[in-house]
Amino acid sequence: MGMPNAGKSSLFNALTRAGVDAANYPFTTVEPNVAVVPVPDGRLDQVVETIGATPTVYETIEFHDIAGLVRGAHRGEGLGNRFLANIRETDALVHVVRTHDDAQVVHPEGRVDPLGDIETIETELLLADLEQAERRLDRVAREAKSHDKEKLAEEAWLRELVSALGEGRPARTLPAPAGAPMAMQNLQPLSAKPVLYLANVAEGDPLEPPAALREHADTAGARATAVSARLEAELSELDARDAVTMREEMGVQESGLSTVIREAWELLGLISFFTAGEGKEGRAWAVSRGTRARRAAGRIHTDIERGFVAAEVVSWRDLVEAGGYAGARERAKLRMEGREYEMRDGDVMTVRFAP
Ligand SMILES: Nc1nc2c(ncn2[C@@H]2O[C@H](COP(=O)(O)OP(=O)(O)O)[C@@H](O)[C@H]2O)c(=O)[nH]1
Ligand SMILES: [Mg+2]
Predict the structure, then answer these.
(1) How far apart are CA 128 and CA 9, in angstroms?
(2) How far apart, in whole angstroms, are the C-alpha atoms of residue 8 and residue 94?
(3) I need a labelling partner for 113 at 20 to 30 A (CA). Which of 60, 87, 337, 348 fits?
(4) Which residue of 64, 101, 105 sits with most ligand 1 atoms within 8 Å of its CB, as the best mutation to test the pocket?
C-alpha cells in the first residue's frame, strides 16, 4: 500500500518479474494486480542437487498491488472502502514510501515528505479501525451487562484500543487481551497487521531508509528497509546473469525481491523447512517459528499429520556436507524426532507415517 505514485506498481512489476528470472519458475497472475512469486532459496537448490531431487518446488508469496490510498479513504474517498477491503485480506502490509525527489513524478500532495505520507495513510487505517472498534464496543458493552467474563475482558480491551487509536497508536502496539482470546479475531483491525516500510529511494542512492522513518518504525512496532523501484524495474528487464553483474557494479548486494521476502519472513515470524527425495520433488515449506514436527508435516498433507509416527531430521548444511542421507546417517547428523520436535529454519525432514 502507499500513496498514488509512491512506486508500488513499478515495484510490483519488478519483483514479480525478478521472481521468474531468479527461480526459473512460472508465476501465475491470478489477476492483473495479484502475482504468486516463487521464493528463491539457495539452500533448497543445494539440497536438491545433493539428493538428486526433481523438480524443485519453491515456497511462494502472493503480492497484491493495490491502488493508492488518499486522504478520506476510510470514508470511501477514491474507492477507499474497496482498497481497505483489499488490505484486510492480506497477512502483512508493505507500505511503499517515496523518498526520491524526481520532479518528473507528480506527488499527490505536491511535496516529498515520507513521514507526512505515512501519517496520511496510517490515519486512514486508524480511522477505519476506530469506527469499527467503537461500533463493536457499543455492542460488547451491552452484552457484557450479563457479566460474562470474556465479554468484560473484551470490553476493557476495546476501551483501551479506542483510546490508543484516538491518540494515533496502531492496534499492533497494544497487547492482545489475555481474558478474551477471540477479541482480536472479532475485530481484525487493519492497524494490527505487521508492516514493512519500504523507502523508494532514488536510483544510485544508498539503500537506507531515512533515519526518521526507522525511528517511526520502532515506535509503531514495524520494520523498515529500502529499495529503488526504478533500479529494480531496469534490472528486471535484463536477463538474470546481466542483472547480477549490474547489481555488483552498483554495489547492491541483494535483489529487491530477496530484501522484501527476507523482511516478510521476519515480519510474519516464518521459518522454512525442506523435503527432498532422490527422483522425487525437493520442496520448501514455510511455517511459523515454533511449529512442531507433527503440525509441520500437516503442511505437506493432512494424512501425514494424522498418521505421523516420527520424523528424520537433518540440517540442510549437514546434509549437503555429508553428500546425502546415507552420509548424514553415518556422521550421526540425521536424528529421529518425535511429534513435539520444534522445527528449525533449514531443517530437511522425512516423515514416517502410518497411512
Ligand atoms: N525517478 C524515479 N521515478 C520513479 C521511481 N519509482 C517509480 N517512479 C515513477 O513514478 C511514477 C509512479 O510509479 P508507480 O509505480 O506507477 O506508482 P504507484 O502509483 O505507487 O503504483 C512512474 O512514472 C514511475 O516510473 C524511482 O525510484 N525513481
Ligand atoms: Mg499503481
Answers:
(1) 24
(2) 9
(3) 87
(4) 105
Distance CA(294)–CA(308), nearest Å, equals 6
Instruction: Count other Cβ atoms within 10 Å, centred on residue 130.
Output: 20
DSSP state of 247: H
**More confident: 277 or 243:** 277
Both 187 and 200 in one domain: the answer is no
CATH of the domain at 233: 3.40.50.300
Q: How far is CA 92 from CA 42, 177, 223, 269, 300, in A?
A: 24, 21, 11, 11, 23
- pLDDT for 69-119, tens place per residue? 778 777 766 555 667 778 888 999 999 999 998 888 888 888 889 999 999
Evaluate: CB of 101 within 6 angstroms of ligand 1.
no
- Assess whether 108 and 211 both reside in one domain: yes
Which residue spans within 178-337 are E strands per DSSP? Answer: 195-200, 223-227, 270-276, 282-288, 308-315, 335-337
Q: Is the CB of 10 under 6 A from ligand 1?
A: yes
Ramachandran region, residue 97 (left: φ > 0; alpha: ψ -120 to 50; beta: rest): beta
Q: Tell me, yes or no, whether 48 lies in a domain.
A: no
- pLDDT tens readout for residues 318-330: 999 999 999 999 9
Domain membership of residue 43 (yes or no) is no
How far, in Å, are 145, 148, 224, 317, 326 from residue 94 at the CA level?
40, 38, 10, 32, 43
Amino acid type, 185: Q
Q: CA dist 28 to 16, 37, 62, 204, 264, Å?
A: 10, 8, 10, 31, 20
- 52, 58, 67, 7: which is closest to 37 by C-alpha? 58
**Residue 11 CB-density burial (10 A; 0-12 exposed, 13-18 middle, 19+ buried):** buried
- Cα→Cα distances 312→25, 293, 306, Å: 29, 10, 17
State the residue range of the domain holding 183.
Answer: 120-191
